[in-house]
Design brief:
Number of strands: 5
Radius of gyration: 11 Å
Strand content: over 45%
Distance between the termini: 8 Å
Amino acid sequence: MALYALVEKVSEDAGQARYQYSEGTGFVLGHVILDKAGERLWIEDGEETYLSRAVVRKIAVHWATHGVAPVKLAVQS
């Protein structure tokens, strides 16, 4: 199964960053929250699917590797 999503940060403050993701059509599939202090992520809305889990994983890896909330990412597999 192929997965593809565009991930974009829509807001950020000192404590958290909020992301939206889509399949590139402009239709937002869901939102993900990064809690910086707690170093945890969760799907704010939308259904938990392989794609939403891949989005969470991609943001988590970037955060753990670089220590900053990414602005844009792409998930492809």
